[in-house]
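FORM 7B: Structural annotation worksheet

SECTION A. Query
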Amino acid sequence: MRNTKSEVLVNFICSDPLGVTIVTNKVSLPSDLLIIKNYVKISEKINSSQVNSPCLPQSKSYLKIIGILYFLHGNMQDCLTSSDIELIIKQNHIFNNITLMSKPRVIKASPKLDIAIIWVNIWDAQSGAKAKGFINWCFNVGKYIATVRRANMNPGISQCKNC
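SECTION B. Predicted structure
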C-alpha cells in the first residue's frame, strides 16, 4: 500500500484471530494510522470486524490486585476465574483506559487464606504511565476492597499474544 501524502510504506499485512498486524518501513504518524485503517477496512482479504483502531506498538506493564476473595460467594466449589476478573475490570470505571495484554491469572494467596492474588498484564506506554496511575488505587468488589499494586513480570503468564 502506498499513499502519496505519506512516506510510510506498508510492507506486510497479516490477519489472524487475534487481530491485524501491519509492518511498515518507519514509524507511522496519527494521520498515517487513519489512512492504514481506512485501507484495511475496505480490503476484501481482512475481516473488517477485527479492525478497531490502529495503534503503535506498546510496552507491557505488570500489576497485581489483592484483597478479593478466592472463593466467590463463600462457596468452596466456586473459585474466582480469569473470566470473572475480566468482567470486574470491564465493569469498573477506573479501568476504562486499559487494554489487557493477556488473560488475568488468579492464584490463592496461601492454603490457609481465602484471598486471591490476581496478576494483570496491560498494554502501556514505554514510560509505564498507565500502570503508574493505577498503583495503590482501591476499588470495591462486592463488600471487599481490592488494591492495585505494581508487580514484576510474571513467568506464569504467557507473554506472547500468539501463545
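SECTION C. Observations
The chain has a mean pLDDT of 79. The beta strands are 10-16, 19-24, 59-69, 105-108, 115-124, 138-141, 144-150.

SECTION D. Sign-off
Analyst initials: ____
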